[in-house]
Structure formats: C-alpha cells, structure tokens
C-alpha cells in the first residue's frame, strides 16, 4: 500500500503554502514513483466555521490512522473572541495530546544564500544544519504540585520539574534514531550540576545509549553552556536532546541563528506505530500570518521543508528529502526571494506560487 498522508491546511496562509506542498507531492508521484494516499480535512477556524469545533472526531481518528499528518497553520483575528474551548489552537493541542507527540524536532538549517540574514557572522552559520529535540509533554510545564499559594503573609509561585525514567528514555530513543539518519552524533543538555531531574536525565540518556545505540556518538553538556555554544560555534552540534523548558529556550535561540520565520519547519513525533513509523505531525513554525493572507506573499518554504522532514523521518526517503532541500537551496542561491526574504538592498519579490514554480523547476 502507498504511504498515507493527512493534510490539514488550516487558516490564513495555511492553505496558500499547503497548495505548494500539494504540487511538490504530485511532482514526486509523477517523477519519482513516490505516491502517497493523500486525504485532506479541516482544522482550526476553518473547522469551527463548518462544524462548530476546531477538530472533528472524524479528523482526529483519521490523524491517528495515517502515516503522517501535515498541518499548515491555525488561528486569526476572526476567532480571537471565541470561547477557549473552541479556539483554533485547541485543534492543534488536541492533535498533539491525543497522538502523544512527546518529541518535538526543531531544525536550525542555514542556507548559504541567506547566511547574511543571521544576527551572527556569515562563517559561523553558513551551512549550519542542526536539530534540537525537545521533550514536549512533561517536565516543569506539567509537574505537580504547581500553583500560587499564600505562605505567611506573602505569595509563593510553585512549579515542579518532574521526569520519569520512561519519559526520558523515549525521547532519547527518538533523538538517537534521528541521529542515525543524520551524522550519528547526539549532545544531551541538562543542569545535572544543580538539578536532581538533570542527574536522572543524564543517567538515563547514557543508559539508553550504552544498551541500544552504542554506535552513536554521545556527549553531555550543561544547558547554560549549551546556549553559549549555540551562539559561539553552532556547527559543533548535530542532534541536541533536552527537556521541555531548556528545549523551549534553546530551540528559539537556534531558530534565530538562521533568519526568517518563513523558512522554519518542525516535526512532533510520538511512539512507533504497528508499521514501525512514529506517530508524526509536521508543520511550519510560523502561524497563519493574517497580515499577508490572500495576497500571494507567503513564503511556502517552511511548509515545503516540513514535508522534506516527513520524507526523511517518517518515510525513510532521505535521498528524496535531500533532493527537495537541495532544490530549495538552489532557488535561494539563484536569488529567488519572497517578500519576507528581501534584504536591505531591495529587489522585486516573487509570489508564493512563483516560489513553488522555482522549486519544482
Ligand atoms: P505569525 O507567524 O502568523 O506571523 C508573524 C509575522 O511573520 C507576520 O508579520 C507574518 O506576516 C510573518 N510570516 C509568518 N509566516 C510567514 C511566511 N510563511 N511567509 C512570510 N511571512 C510570514 O505569528 P502571529 O502574527 O503572532 O500570529 C498570527 C496568528 O497565527 C494568531 O492567530 C496566532 O495564534 C496564530 N499562530 C498559529 C501557530 C500555529 O498554527 N502553529 C503558531 C503561531 C501563531
Ligand atoms: Mg517558544
């Protein structure tokens, strides 16, 4: 059977950038014999408008069945006053929660042609290609006890950093699996010098490594040093695995090494399904961009690179992922720029569809 994909374009520029991904998918079918069973459904405001809910049970069930889900973006000013229970982002949160997507992959990849967009020097980022794996469903954002209490005559704010062995083990497996599809190197980051959860994190990552992935090169680093190293010499890393809080901060930091929001893909992975593929949701990091919706200005590259991640991490199509990423690299080197990629020197931006055309060509 063909591998299956569920496409959820969502709101705002979501459908505009996803239209370009559809053309890329069709191209692989026509030229590489790589055919997907593609279905499409609504999510976010688009689903609320039609069904009164940001994700129907039928769409949820479909997401659980397919090999990978590809999502555009959700939200927009039209929905800002809705009750929280039916807000567009609830559709996305439901997908993440019910699919149990505990491993969040945020690549920071710097195409040479855009290296001058970085706030860092050209040589520090040119050719950069690293992957931050952030634990997404546990840690200090979820640990109990939490809350604001009165102690004596002052208030105390409490959060608890809590990780079980199995939570650390499953996200480290996810990172080691990824490393094997890249350059086989993992750096784990925590604060074992001051945190008990950090001591356990370091131990468990090392144990999983020694027992199951001895072929992968593993190192450990304190997360504060990691932040410094990311800005000082980011190319020393390949895969970084870290907890929810440190991952939140380090992945935003790494993302900005590369420049525009319109360029950043992401993936969220869960446990392996019966066919061995992990549960998976791929989406651009950006939102629905209401300020440019309907104007043909959106950069489709983040969404197209999200599909490249699906090729690599869900479908074992590393060569075809390389081909697609190479095409993006080439059009940027040739000078193709959507409006968000215009430097101070100016020039004429091309449209969403023209960028799609260039990549296909
Ligand atoms: P945003 O990411 O939609 O836009 C921020 C800025 O970046 C805007 O100026 C926008 O025009 C620009 N931009 C974003 N993607 C672009 C692209 N592909 N090409 C060119 N320019 C691009 O974030 P914002 O404005 O904070 O949020 C807008 C809506 O999106 C809100 O309703 C928010 O809740 C939602 N949102 C949804 C996300 C998701 O679906 N995962 C993530 C972030 C925000
Ligand atoms: Mg963040």
UniProtKB/TrEMBL annotation:
Catalyzes the oxidation of 3-carboxy-2-hydroxy-4-methylpentanoate (3-isopropylmalate) to 3-carboxy-4-methyl-2-oxopentanoate. The product decarboxylates to 4-methyl-2 oxopentanoate. SMART domains: Iso_dh. Pathway: Amino-acid biosynthesis; L-leucine biosynthesis; L-leucine from 3-methyl-2-oxobutanoate: step 3/4. PROSITE patterns: IDH_IMDH. Substrate binds at residues 96, 106, 134, 224. One of its GO terms (cellular component) is cytosol. This is 3-isopropylmalate dehydrogenase. It comes from the Bacteria. Its main location: cytoplasm. GO terms for molecular function: 3-isopropylmalate dehydrogenase activity; magnesium ion binding; NAD binding. Its EC number is 1.1.1.85. The record marks 141, 191 as: Important for catalysis. Mg(2+) binds at residues 224, 248, 252. Keywords: Amino-acid biosynthesis, Branched-chain amino acid biosynthesis, Cytoplasm, Leucine biosynthesis, Magnesium, Manganese, Metal-binding, NAD, Oxidoreductase. NAD(+) binds at residues 76-89, 287-299. Belongs to the isocitrate and isopropylmalate dehydrogenases family. LeuB type 1 subfamily. Homodimer. It catalyses: (2R,3S)-3-isopropylmalate + NAD(+) = 4-methyl-2-oxopentanoate + CO2 + NADH. The keyword NAD applies. It is found in: Cytoplasm. The lineage of its organism: Bacteria, Pseudomonadati, Pseudomonadota, Alphaproteobacteria, Rhodobacterales.
């Amino acid at each position: 059977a063909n591998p299956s994909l569920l496409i959820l374009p969502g709101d705002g520029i979501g459908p505009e950038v996803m239209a370009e991904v559809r053309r890329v998918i069709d191209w692989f079918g026509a030229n590489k014999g790589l055919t997907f069973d593609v279905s499409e459904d609504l999510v976010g405001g688009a689903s609320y408008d039609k069904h009164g809910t940001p994700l129907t049970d039928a769409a949820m069930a479909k997401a659980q069945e397919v090999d990978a889900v590809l999502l555009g973006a959700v939200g927009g000013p039209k929905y800002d006053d809705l009750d929280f229970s039916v807000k567009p982002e609830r559709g996305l949160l439901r997908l993440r929660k019910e699919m149990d997507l505990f491993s969040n992959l945020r690549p920071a990849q710097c195409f040479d042609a855009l290296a001058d967009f970085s706030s860092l020097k050209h040589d520090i980022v040119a050719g950069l290609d690293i992957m931050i794996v952030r634990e997404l469903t546990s840690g200090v954002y979820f640990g109990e006890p939490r809350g604001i209490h009165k102690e004596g005559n002052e208030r105390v704010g409490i959060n608890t950093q809590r990780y079980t062995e199995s939570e650390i083990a499953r996200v480290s497996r996810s990172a080691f699996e990824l490393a094997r599809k890249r350059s086989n190197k993992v750096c784990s980051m925590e604060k074992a010098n001051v945190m008990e959860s950090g001591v356990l994190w370091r131990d468990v990552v090392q144990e999983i490594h020694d027992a199951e992935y001895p072929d992968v090169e593993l190192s450990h680093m304190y997360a504060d040093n990691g932040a410094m190293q990311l800005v000082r010499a980011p190319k020393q890393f390949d895969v970084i695995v870290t907890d929810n809080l440190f991952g939140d901060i380090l992945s935003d930091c790494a993302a900005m090494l590369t420049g525009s929001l319109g360029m950043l893909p992401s993936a969220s992975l869960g446990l392996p399904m019966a066919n061995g593929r992990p549960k998976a949701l791929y989406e651009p990091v950006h939102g629905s961009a209401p300020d440019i919706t309907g104007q043909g200005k959106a950069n489709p590259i983040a969404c197209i690179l999200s599909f490249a991640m699906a090729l690599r991490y869900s479908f074992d199509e590393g060569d075809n992922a390389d081909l697609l990423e190479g095409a993006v690299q080439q059009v940027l080197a040739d000078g193709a720029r959507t409006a968000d990629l215009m430097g101070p020197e100016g020039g004429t931006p091309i449209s969403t569809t023209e960028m799609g055309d260039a990549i296909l060509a």
